[in-house]
Specification:
The chain has about 80 residues and is mostly helical. The protein has one domain. The chain has four helices and no strands.
Length: about 80
């Protein structure tokens, strides 16, 4: 996938994930942005080869939450 297409996907996914982070952690948008962009999950999401971009915002949020709580990310099994 070309980088511009991946960037477009992230532009649509990120606000949905950020909204879930704000709601779950009761934090400001700025705090959520800082948490999300500093996360290992975001770094993995930016890497096209992980194919994480094809997951739903809810699935990615659950992975983010797991990373925050345990420091680990469980990658979903390919179906």
């Amino acid at each position: 996938m070309e980088q511009s297409r991946l960037t477009t996907i992230l532009i649509f996914l990120a606000p949905r994930i950020l909204s879930l982070i704000i709601s779950e952690y009761k934090i400001t948008e700025q705090e959520a942005v800082e948490m999300f962009y500093a996360s290992k999950l975001y770094k993995e999401l930016e890497n096209e080869q992980t194919k994480l971009w094809h997951l739903s915002a809810n699935a990615l949020f659950e992975m983010f939450k797991e990373e925050q709580e345990t420091g680990k990310i469980t990658y979903p099994e390919e179906g």
